[in-house]
User: What shape does this take?
Amino acid sequence: MLKIDVVLTPSNYRSSLAADRSVVIVDVLRASTTVATALYYGAREIIPFRYPSEAEEMVGRMERNEVILAGERKSVKIPGFDLGNSPLEYLTGVVSNKVILFCTTNGTRMMKRVGSQRNVLLSAFVNMSSVVERLISDARDVLILCSGHEGGFSLEDSVCSGMIISRLRGSVKEYRIELGDEATAAEILYDHFKDDLMDMAMSSSHGRNLIDSGMEEDVRFCMMVDKFNIVPELRSGVWVSGKRGIEK
Assistant: This one.
């Protein structure tokens, strides 16, 4: 039997839920997508921070030409930082072999909360199949953590979680899958929106806010499925590339 649980809002997460499981963090708009993109394009590692001041303090102890300060507050690049949280900023060689100090409103807060856990992966739509393949290979029960939006429920993270469940259900024929209530809700949401993810994004408050702020191309990029064959893994609190393949 494969047991899958989803935590739909960050406040519901407890570390005991992650014991002996593969843990998947989801923040579709935009941290998960951006981390996957940066690692695909050659970033050496990505270190998450809760607060910009923590990242700024660390950069002072590193060789400046080897590190990138990146992040956002309220979807806007943090003043004085090199990059924001748009995955489109990471599509060139600017991040190749660099250490990225990364701070976002929602995603990195969840990343820091699970930093001491083992078997932690990062998923978005852009690396969906690679993450599902890894979960199948690891053969553990699964806990999916939605980073949410400003501490609350996020439609896009929930739908992404539902896609993970649906893909696992279609691939793991030899196991019976048991879902918690929040996992069942996530799968139902995915089934409702699966034929038009962009319509889903436009229905979400975070998606609408980004589009209204002139970031529609970011949203469209984040709704692309299986663009990258990569699985970000959290090792000792740092995101590194677990798998890399050909861009689709």
